[in-house]
């Protein structure tokens, strides 16, 4: 009889399930990789705001349209009219590649979607005792994806693995409803605050199975026995809370503009539901189920092994990352504008690893050119560092799995007295490391493309 020592299967009830075995060292440990709950803390997956998209998000020192509620409410006061604006992502395509997960074979995850990323309305009002202020209401969707995967890998790698199959449907979305106000201070400065309702909803439904063999046993001489292990998992994460962002925008001599904003958020509702069912069965080559009794290996004894796990958690996130934005803008000529931002995202913490996030900094820079007082051209570059879970929150180099992106944006359209209408393209490419198999880190890379259209209408 062939030796099968220490072939014991262990099942984890943690939200990010990892199955660990000695005789399926790769496949059972990646039946459900320890995920980071989609892109909760990839901060620039979708750029927000009709004008800010083209400037690569470098908008903190401007913020003079309704999207200023998201970047810096202090700039909202610099609007001169009532404004209605929106932007829609008509095309969203994301692909991540993890190298050498299955022997020398790469594993790909893809996502696509079409979603409204921004809608806003702002208007000047004059309440008693306060004087003239600008108020605004906006809906923001900084991240949304729908992933539909169906991977089939056979005879790779070779040691006894016959087939691996993974079918997954993953949807995720983060949205904010923002209400804010801003008051002009002098001619070129403003101070404002915005309160928002924050909603995060992520659902993962994954089925995976692996067939391995053949095995031989003394009780079944000359007979090949195959093992099939299947897993069906559902995870649903919901976070709801509130955030307050306050900021200031001012202009110095020489036309240099400066903006500074701070946001703090607090979750008031959180829930993570997790269900998994794992089944193992032994069959002959023709698919007939067999019963293995006379073996000293407990994990192989019997014809069927079934495990059902269900858990629910409602208090796993203790700290949502805060945010500090600082930006500069300079207009050397009437038709040329340059801007830049530095954004610091704070620590995230909680009782599960997928919400523990290290501090990261992201940067962006943009330029705007106006041709014939009507056509605008905008372009910029930005970073989208991944604040993924780390073994040590004080050391970002200890991140277990991450992809750090760098992106570019290009926009063009018409800028009229009555409004602005544009089309935008952003592309991000990134490199990182992935640990799909515990203890084995391999390179990974990603690409994210977004095409969007926008419209802003001004009313005097």
CATH class, please?
Mainly Beta
* Helix-and-strand structural type: mainly beta
Mean pLDDT reading: 82
Reading the helices and strands in chain order gives: HHEEEEEEEEEEEEEEEEE
**Number of helical regions:** 2
Low-confidence stretches: 1-38
Helix content: under 10%
Examine the coordinates and then state which fold CATH places here, giving the name of the CATH topology: Porin
**Could you give the distance between the termini?**
87 Å
Percent of sequence in beta strands: over 45%
Number of strands: 17
| Strand order, largest beta sheet | 1-2-3-4-5-6-7-10-11-13-14-15-16-17
CATH superfamily, called what? Outer membrane protein transport protein (OMPP1/FadL/TodX)
The largest sheet, given as strand count, sense and whether it forms a barrel, is:
14 strands, antiparallel, barrel
State the assembly state of the protein chains: single chain
Rg, please? 26 Å
Number of domains: 1
What characteristic shape results from the CA principal axes? elongated
What's the architecture, going by CATH? Answer: Beta Barrel
Give a structural overview.
With 460 residues, this protein is mainly beta. It is elongated, with a radius of gyration of 26 Å. The protein is built from 2 helices and 17 strands. 40% of the residues are buried. It is 2% helix and 63% strand. It has one domain (50-459): Porin (Beta Barrel). Residues 1-38 have low confidence and may be disordered. The protein starts with 49 loop residues before the first helix and ends with a strand.
Features:
460 residues, mainly beta, Porin, 14-stranded antiparallel beta barrel, two-stranded antiparallel sheet, 2 helices, 17 strands, 2% helix, 63% strand, elongated, disordered N terminus
């Amino acid at each position: 009889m062939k030796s099968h020592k220490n072939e014991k299967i262990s099942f984890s009830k943690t939200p990010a399930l990892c199955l660990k075995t000695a005789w399926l060292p790769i496949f059972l440990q990646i039946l459900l990789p320890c995920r980071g709950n989609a892109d909760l803390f990839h901060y620039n997956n979708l750029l927000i705001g009709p004008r800010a998209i083209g400037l690569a998000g470098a908008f903190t020192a401007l913020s003079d349209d309704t999207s200023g509620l998201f970047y810096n409410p202090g700039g909202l006061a610099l609007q001169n009219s009532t404004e209605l604006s929106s932007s829609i992502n008509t095309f969203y395509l994301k692909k991540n590649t993890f190298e050498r997960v299955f022997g020398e074979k790469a594993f790909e995850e893809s996502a696509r979607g079409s979603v409204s990323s921004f809608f806003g309305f702002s208007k000047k009002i004059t309440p008693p005792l306060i004087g003239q202020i600008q108020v605004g209401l906006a809906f923001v969707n900084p991240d949304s994806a729908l992933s539909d995967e169906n991977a089939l890998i056979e005879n790779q790698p070779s040691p006894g693995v016959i087939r691996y199959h993974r079918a997954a449907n993953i949807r995720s979305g983060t949205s904010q409803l923002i209400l804010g106000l801003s008051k002009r201070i002098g001619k070129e400065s403003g101070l404002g605050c915005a309160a928002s309702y924050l909603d995060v909803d992520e659902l993962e439904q994954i089925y995976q199975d692996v067939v391995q063999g053949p095995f031989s046993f003394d009780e079944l001489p000359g007979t090949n026995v195959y093992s099939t292990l299947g897993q069906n998992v559902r995870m649903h994460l919901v976070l709801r809370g509130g955030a307050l962002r306050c900021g200031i925008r001012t202009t110095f001599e020489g036309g240099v503009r400066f903006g500074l904003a701070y946001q703090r958020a607090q979750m008031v509702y959180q829930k993570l539901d997790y269900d998994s069912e794992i089944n193992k069965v032994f069959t002959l080559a023709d698919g007939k189920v067999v019963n293995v009794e006379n073996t000293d290996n407990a994990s192989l004894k019997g014809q069927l092994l079934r495990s059902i796990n269900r858990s629910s958690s409602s208090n796993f996130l203790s700290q949502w990352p805060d945010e500090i934005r600082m930006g500069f803008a300079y207009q050397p000529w009437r038709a040329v504008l340059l801007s830049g931002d530095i954004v610091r995202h704070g620590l995230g913490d909680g009782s599960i690893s997928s919400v523990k996030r290290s501090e990261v900094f992201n940067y962006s820079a943009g330029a705007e050119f106006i041709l014939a007082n009507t056509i605008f051209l905008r372009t910029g570059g930005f970073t989208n560092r991944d604040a993924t879970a780390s073994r040590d929150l004080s050391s970002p180099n200890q991140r277990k799995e991450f992809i750090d992106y760098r992106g570019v944006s290009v926009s063009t359209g018409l800028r009229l007295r009555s409004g602005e209408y544009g089309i935008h393209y952003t592309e991000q490419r990134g490199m990182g490391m992935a640990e799909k198999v515990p203890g084995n880190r391999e390179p990974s890379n990603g690409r994210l493309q977004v095409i969007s259209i926008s419209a802003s209408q001004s009313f005097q």
